[in-house]
């Protein structure tokens, strides 16, 4: 990272406050308190999730949920298959109501449900393929069936993401059936388009559950929805290399792609999902990096950089070039040398001191936050940009101070996330600075930032490092900055 023209960042997990298990990392940004305040009008209200009140609460199957109505072929009649069958009953119930008002054609429930055990060598052949060692859930249009692995796929999803996420998983698969009914896909439709539409259809169903309209499931808009979004992030595509270029159209999407599609359905409804096309996805992605490139030496970008004082100085220099502030903040890695009225808790990775106009960093904590995670241990992705996006957000508080806007409100938190998104988009291109050092966004970096917005929320926090309740809203604000052509758009969107 310290050498000119070869410095990059990229891909892997959450925040310094995150516990080892994924379930512990998603306790609604436990490292930052929610900001009290008044509900605001506008598309991104700090205490709302696409118009619904942002709150934690029960998520999962209702105690009084009706028993499954249909039969499941191959079932062992256990709890996992009951959860799956109840989920599909609920999704069918949703589409019976929503389909006529949203899509062309007519709705007919999926004909056949099949359960299998991926650990059993005698597991059946379905849709022309063996299911042994197939840890999956899928819709087969040829046979009009939805099948699932009761041994690994469904129980692991339930364990780490919750029962509502299981319902979300099947809502995605049912979404593929909806595509067939509405004639939205053809043989030459890119896989990415079909998968994004299915993610979006799942989001529209999840909205129905969150509104309290499901007789079988509940979903809180805070920690419950956070877990569902974390599940979407976990099943993202791997970072694309030149040998995997086909994933640009034939993959399932990056973490940002998948979360954005779920949010589209949740916010705009099933009808909006039908508008997803390759052109729409391309416009949404813009010029953001999607493929790791070769260095001047010919080697592939590593996508990671070590978090050091030199790295952070380069980051601050680049941000200064992007924004050209009249009073650029200084950087300090030793809090004892900064005279500030108050300091956050010792484990805080970075904060902004207005009186000293200084971004203060706890380097040890920040380095832990920027260390790639081992996702095989069921923790959310984390990497260098999980840390660097947090430092960027603290720098942007200094710019807001110069604009004379309040720094200690829930609106500040969302404005900061928006500005950070704008800054990250600018860093997707080479920014020449006096030192000659480089720090450039690469494929996978935005996934790390999005995961951090779920697990610690610091990119979407105010000067007191207080964030807003819902990860959904934090990510939406960040994405609005990514799509903005100017930083002023963030100030106009999130008025004091």
From TrEMBL:
It comes from the Bacteria. InterPro entries: Uncharacterised_pept_Zn_put. It is a single-pass membrane protein. Keywords: Membrane, Plasmid, Signal, Transmembrane, Transmembrane helix. This is Neutral zinc metallopeptidase. Residues 58-77 are annotated as: Disordered. Residues 1-32 form the signal peptide. It is found in: Membrane.
């Amino acid at each position: 990272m310290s050498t000119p023209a070869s410095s990059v960042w990229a891909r892997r997990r959450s925040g310094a406050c995150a516990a080892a298990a994924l379930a512990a990392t998603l306790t609604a940004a436990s490292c930052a308190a929610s900001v009290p305040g008044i509900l605001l009008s506008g598309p991104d209200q700090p205490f709302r999730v696409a118009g619904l009140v942002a709150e934690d609460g029960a998520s999962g199957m209702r105690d009084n949920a009706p028993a499954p109505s249909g039969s499941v072929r191959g079932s062992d009649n256990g709890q996992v298959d009951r959860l799956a069958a109840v989920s599909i009953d609920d999704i069918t119930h949703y589409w019976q109501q929503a389909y006529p008002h949203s899509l062309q054609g007519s709705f007919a429930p999926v004909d056949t449900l099949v359960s299998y055990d991926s650990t059993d060598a005698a597991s059946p052949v379905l849709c022309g393929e063996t299911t042994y060692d197939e840890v999956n859930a899928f819709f087969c249009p040829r046979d009009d069936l939805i099948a699932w692995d009761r041994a690994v796929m469904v129980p692991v999803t339930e364990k780490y993401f919750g029962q509502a996420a299981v319902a979300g998983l099947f809502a995605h698969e049912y979404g593929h059936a909806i595509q067939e009914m509405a004639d939205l896909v053809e043989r030459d439709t890119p896989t990415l388009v079909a998968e994004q539409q299915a993610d979006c259809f799942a989001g529209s169903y999840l909205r129905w559950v969150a509104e309290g309209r499901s007789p079988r499931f509940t979903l809180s808009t805070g920690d419950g929805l956070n877990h569902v979004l974390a599940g979407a992030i976990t099943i993202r595509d791997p970072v694309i290399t030149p040998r995997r270029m086909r994933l640009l159209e034939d993959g399932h999407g990056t973490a940002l792609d998948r979360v954005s599609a779920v949010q589209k359905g949740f916010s705009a409804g099933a009808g909006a999902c039908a508008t997803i096309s390759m052109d729409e996805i391309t416009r949404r992605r813009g010029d953001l990096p999607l493929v790791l490139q070769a260095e001047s030496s010919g080697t592939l970008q590593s996508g990671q950089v070590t978090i050091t004082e030199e790295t952070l100085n380069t980051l601050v220099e680049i941000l200064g070039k992007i924004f050209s502030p009249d009073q650029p903040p200084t950087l300090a890695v030793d809090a004892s040398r900064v005279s500030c009225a108050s300091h956050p808790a010792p484990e805080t990775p970075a904060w902004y001191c207005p009186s000293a106009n200084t971004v203060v960093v706890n380097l040890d904590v920040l380095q832990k936050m920027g260390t790639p995670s081992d996702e095989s241990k069921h923790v959310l992705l984390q990497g260098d940009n999980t840390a660097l996006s947090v430092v960027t957000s603290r720098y942007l508080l200094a710019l807001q101070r110069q604009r004379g806007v309040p720094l200690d409100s829930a609106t500040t938190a969302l404005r900061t996330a928006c500005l950070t998104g704008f800054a990250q988009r600018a860093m997707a291109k080479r920014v020449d600075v006096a030192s000659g050092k480089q720090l450039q966004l690469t494929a996978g970096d935005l996934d790390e930032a999005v995961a951090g917005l779920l697990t610690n929320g610091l990119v979407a926090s105010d000067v007191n490092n207080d964030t807003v309740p819902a990860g959904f809203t934090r990510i939406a604000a960040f994405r609005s900055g990514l799509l903005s052509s100017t930083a002023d758009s963030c100030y106009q969107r999130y008025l004091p």
